[in-house]
Amino acid sequence: MKLSDWITGLNAGGSDGWGVFYKAREMKAAGEAVLELTIGEHDIRTSDAILEAMYRSALGGHTGYAMVPGVNSLRDVVAERIAERTGVPTTRNNIMITPGGQSALFSTHCAVCDTGDTALFIAPYYATYPGTLRAAGAVPVCVDARAEDAFQPRAGEIAAVAPGAKSLLINSPNNPTGVVYSRATLEGIASVCMDNDLWLISDEVYDTQVWKGEHISPRALPGMAERTLVVGSMSKSHAMTGSRVGWIAGPEEVIARLIDLATTTTYGVPGFIQDAAEFALLQGPDLEEEVAAPFRRRRDIARAILAKQNTVGLIPADGAMYLMLDIRATGKSGEEFAEGLLAEERIATMPGESFGTAAAGHLRVAMTIDDDAFADALTRLVSYAERITP
Description:
The chain has 390 residues and is α/β, with parallel strands linked by helices. The protein is built from 13 helices and 13 strands. Helix 4 (72-86) runs parallel beside helix 10.
């Protein structure tokens, strides 16, 4: 029996670039000690208070079908949070609750792209982006940001491929680079979108992890609220990765159509999980800062270690739980370096090439192990780089 071209083509017939990660997991399963700096999974668990709220809700009976658009009280809390932080008037009618940010990324592209439409995205990119766009029926077209620009995208290069495209996907604070897009960058992107009648899909799941500068939601820029769909999530801000709860914020008419899509696909998010998300959001920014604090601390640890040498470069790490390291001085590709580091030092990182050719010769390091182990891993990574540099 033959599978559909659609399902077999999600990765364009190639690798998704996660070979080092899978190899590291196999080594750990075999009993080897490996320091994993690979995926964006917190080294703390979901707060006990959030889990208790989830438990109370489930015991209280919120275990049946929940409202497909999301529980109204959670939609209200999300809307209020967005309105307070961006200044853009937002109500529950602008919000749909989704099973995590990944579902939201897929749904937003289904909403704005017909089969065969061009959907633009920026590299380096979160590894699922190309497959997500293909899954929505779109043709993904990548626009490379440049290491020499600290991976801030150039509006002119987006504009060069924008004619005829339907949408543009951006992510700030950025996974994998840790870059926070500047106001000038976002204003340039907004101008391209308005000039070319593009929908802008803004992945803002790291909005609570900003170490320098400010997070600006492009939905707040003049003329952008009516053409912007924002993807949010509880995964990174509240260490609720496994709970699978996120949202889409956008124009009312788009949200109404997205509810139609959810009715025929996910059929909503469990009510007890939504109640836990509402409880978590109502704890305010103090809990968000508590979850973010280890990554802020480890970013400072990394900067201090890297400042003592000249072999490994650091792309400005202004947000998110990742560092993007420039290892081009070693003469190795990101994949070669990551394979060697794993083999010799038992340290697992993600090759830059996993996130597009724009990040070739780089590594993504997730700051997701405890401070002492992280400092040890980074110190050994630098020593390995110095050892293999010609």
